[in-house]
Specification:
- The chain has 496 residues and is mainly alpha-helical.
- The chain folds into four domains: 123 residues, HUPs (Rossmann fold, 3-Layer(aba) Sandwich); 98 residues, Glutamyl-tRNA Synthetase, domain 3 (Alpha-Beta Complex), CATH 3.90.800; 130 residues, Glutamyl-tRNA Synthetase, domain 2; 98 residues, Arc Repressor Mutant, subunit A.
- The chain contains 22 helices and twelve strands.
- Strands 1-2-3 form a three-stranded parallel beta sheet.
- The chain binds glutamic acid (GLU).
- Glutamic acid binds next to loops.
Length: 496
């Protein structure tokens, strides 16, 4: 049995952020690799943000990604008494003390330090109180916080971060920090440690923004006499302007649900996320679940922050090009039978589903998906760019119209005549349609490309796509002939 126990302790904010998802993923990979356990713990002390809906958002996001946990969800607020009891024990054992300094007094001292151009750190006024005097004041109900007593001898907290290496913080650079507020509520620094001790966490794998807390948390572990876990801090993921990504600033584009709703495959998103801050040490970028579990290690987490690129203004390439490329890879290579179920859901949502696709037209459906996916990036492309395969009321994309129809107005006359020729073909095979189109182009004295691109625009509405003769094959003779005959209407729609 492995002793590896890791945790994912999100503070709910209403949705699962891709940065948090990456943290969860790293922890999950590490647990799975070592046959350990992943604990899900919701740090729900911010009552306003920890609504049922926002907790559900996190759980749904994890479930969708396929990140399963072994214990929990536990809720931090359920352990509040335990956190306060730990603080009392620290006071009783001399590792912490009540502090009665008022906000006004602290502000005045901070001001004075600023005026003297010095650094302000809590000056230890209450640390020097005799324990029975302090206890008597507490007993009288005098308002107070509880501060942790940072060792006063010379020395420092030293730890070996799995990513950032040996790190050191001098005691002299730490002030006696608050662990319980005057209203009796424990602070995150304390609760988080008490929970990790109770949950027997062996490795704390979290964002680099947690690094500032680590020395103080190590002091708490020591004072509690608890074993100190291994720490691994992961680099941050920044936006193209090198700012931290957040929903407030970037909107939905940073929420896992956004990817689900925009046609991503869960594993593709995981595969993309793992690369934001980790590499296998060779040039592999695509991994199956098993391969990734095998390849993953804390040692290969990068130190440099990663950049998440996206372009909200581009409807097609709305997110990081790498994310789209990874998604496209899986979409194009997964077993087409598995893809069929996912596309079915997309078509149903758009009213494009036909039960025959699961029955007598099953073969046609699979063959069509297999053909058209070669150009697609997300599941949404099937009902959108692929609409013409499943419905007759598709639009002709602007770019396709401008480039391949408007420039050659003669196509309005040529394509219906081409339709007549195609209607006469006894076998509507790719070879036969190709020969017919090329022969017709030669007769007209135009480049075959003019006809090929024009036909594509009219029968699929798209500027680009798989090889045209394959496309005609899956669309079938009737639909192709009918659509080409209506080319003049397509021109009229535009000029009208
Ligand atoms: N609730 C904290 C957060 O979401 C957890 C930090 C930690 O992993 O210790 O940032």
């Amino acid at each position: 049995m492995s002793d590896v126990r890791v945790r994912f302790p999100p503070s709910p904010t209403g949705y699962l952020h891709i940065g948090s998802a990456r943290t969860a993923l790293y922890n999950w990979l590490f647990a799975r690799k070592h046959g350990g356990k992943l604990v899900l713990r919701i740090e729900d002390t911010d009552a306003e943000r920890s609504t049922e809906a926002s907790i559900r958002g996190i759980i749904e996001g994890l479930e969708w990604l396929g990140i399963d946990w072994d214990e929990g969800p536990y809720f931090q607020t359920a352990f509040r008494d335990e956190h306060v009891a730990a603080a009392r024990r620290l006071v009783a054992e001399g590792h912490a003390y009540p502090c009665f300094c008022t906000k006004e007094e602290l502000d005045a001292r901070r001001e004075a330090a600023r005026a003297a151009k010095g650094d302000y750190r809590y000056d230890g006024t209450c640390r020097r109180l005799a324990p029975d005097e302090a206890a008597a004041r507490v007993a009288r109900g005098e308002p107070h916080v509880i501060r942790f007593r940072v060792p006063d001898e010379a020395g420092s907290v030293v730890f070996e971060d799995k990513v950032y290496g040996r790190l050191e913080k001098a005691y002299a650079d730490l002030e006696d920090f608050v662990i319980v507020r005057s209203d009796g509520s424990p602070l995150y620094l304390l609760s988080n440690v008490v929970d990790d001790v109770r949950d027997r966490i062996s490795h704390v794998i979290r964002g680099q923004d947690g690094l500032a807390n680590t020395p103080r948390q190590i002091l708490i572990y020591r004072a509690l006499g608890a074993p100190i876990p291994v720490f691994a801090h992961m680099p941050l993921t920044l936006d193209p302007q090198k700012a931290k990504i957040s929903k407030r600033k970037h909107g939905e584009i940073v929420a896992v649900q956004f990817y689900r709703d925009n046609g991503f495959l869960p594993w593709a998103l995981c595969n993309f996320l793992v690369l934001l801050g980790w590499s296998p040490g060779d040039d592999r970028e695509l991994f199956t679940r098993e391969e990734l579990i095998q390849a993953f290690s804390l040692e290969r987490i990068n130190r440099a922050n990663s950049v998440f690129n996206y372009n909200k203004n581009d409807p097609k390439f709305f997110t990081d090009p790498k994310a789209l490329a990874v998604n496209a890879h899986y979409l194009r290579t997964m077993p087409v039978e598995d893809l069929a179920g996912l596309v079915e859901a997309e078509l149903r949502a758009e009213g494009l589903w036909d039960d025959a696709y699961a029955g007598e037209r099953r073969d046609w459906f699979l063959r069509t998906l297999d053909l058209i996916r070669s150009r697609f990036h997300t599941l949404k492309d099937f009902p959108r760019a692929g609409r013409a395969y499943f419905a007759d009321d598709y639009a002709i994309e602007d770019r396709a119209y401008k480039k391949n129809l408007a420039k050659h107005p003669d196509l309005a006359g040529w394509l219906p005549r081409l339709a007549d020729r195609l209607a006469g073909l006894a076998a509507f095979t790719p070879e036969a349609t190709e020969a017919a189109i090329r022969a017709y182009a030669e007769g007209l004295g135009v480049k075959p490309g003019v006809l090929i691109n024009g036909v594509r625009a009219v029968v699929t509405g798209q500027l680009a796509g798989p090889g045209l003769f394959e496309v005609l094959d899956v669309l079938g003779q009737d639909r192709v002939v009918d659509r080409l005959r209506r080319t003049p209407e397509r021109f009229a729609e535009r000029s009208g």
